[in-house]
Amino acid sequence: MSDRDTRTYASIRVGPGGGPRDEVVAVEEPMEVRVNGSPFAVIMRTPGADRDLAAGFLLAEDVVHGVEEIGLIEYCLDADEEGRDNVINATVTGDAIARLDERLAGRRQVMMTASCGLCGRRTIESLQSRVASVDGHWTVPASVIASMPPALREAQPVFETTGGLHAAGLFDLEGRLLLVAEDVGRHNAVDKITGRMLLERRLPLSQAMLQVSGRTSFELVQKALLAGIPLIASVSAPSSLAIDLAREAGITLCGFVRGGGFNVYAHPQRIG
């Protein structure tokens, strides 16, 4: 946890034990993503792991297909004082340049909120034209799936302080937590994980599982598909489109993972 993750605000507690108090609150700030110098998107996020977030976002937006298409990702030095740490430029190369031009020509410049994700822009069919399905011919005990939410919860320092962030955790097949990311947005947390793995040349993640806080939406399953993750689990419910995509893409989808049990909505053969 860093000074950029949280801020302290005065508040008044109403009820038992009430009165003035200081509250530590999770930070939410806009990050402008420029690609090859052109404005591409504004993401409301919790500062931290911004390079990972930008890389994961470009993977999810189908601008880049691999780390070899990414050059530098760096903060823009020409930004004003307030935006100095909130404007980042990614350089893409090769075939990604043509994809970038297509995305810039076909999208509106919009402010992305922390819950926005893809906003329904991409369909299951267009996704499968690029990545038909995931690999992952393995099974994992149900007890390992059930153990992931408590392990993720213990690795959330900012949530522990503020109660105001989502999290995503990457686990191996024995239930060991490999990487965790926190953010005001669930999809941002996943982008930080997939972006880190992309930059470290570790995609596809065919021997890994993804645990997320909150519900599982279409865009979270889409991000798992593009990263090659065969299993995604959440502590809450999936949406209908998330289930449809998981079934089509060969992804095991688990929901309501709590209290030692869970529901399996797609490809239960991976649960041993």
Textual characterization of the structure:
The protein is an alpha/beta fold. It folds into two domains: 29-116, Ubiquitin-like (UB roll) (Roll), CATH 3.10.20.10; 142-270, Cytidine Deaminase, domain 2 (3-Layer(aba) Sandwich). Helices cover 29% and strands 30% of the residues. It has eight helices and 13 strands. The protein has helices spanning 50-60, 96-106, 124-128, 142-154, 157-162, 186-199, 218-227, 240-249, and strands at residues 6-13, 19-26, 29-35, 38-45, 70-75, 87-92, 111-112, 166-172, 177-183, 208-212, 231-234, 252-258, 261-266. The strands form three sheets. A six-stranded mixed β-sheet has the order 9-8-10-11-12-13, sandwiched between helices. Strand 3 and strand 4 (38-45) form a beta hairpin. The radius of gyration is 19 Å and the shape is flat. 41% of the residues are buried. Residues 108-122 have low confidence and may be disordered.
Fraction of residues in H or I helices: 25-40%
Mean pLDDT: 87
> Strand share of the residues?
25-35%
Overall domain count: 2
What's the topology here?
Elements: E1 6-13, E2 19-26, E3 29-35, E4 38-45, H1 50-60, E5 70-75, E6 87-92, H2 96-106, E7 111-112, H3 124-128, H4 142-154, H5 157-162, E8 166-172, E9 177-183, H6 186-199, E10 208-212, H7 218-227, E11 231-234, H8 240-249, E12 252-258, E13 261-266
Parallel strand pairs: 3-6, 4-7, 10-11, 11-12
Antiparallel strand pairs: 1-2, 3-4, 5-6, 8-9, 8-10, 12-13
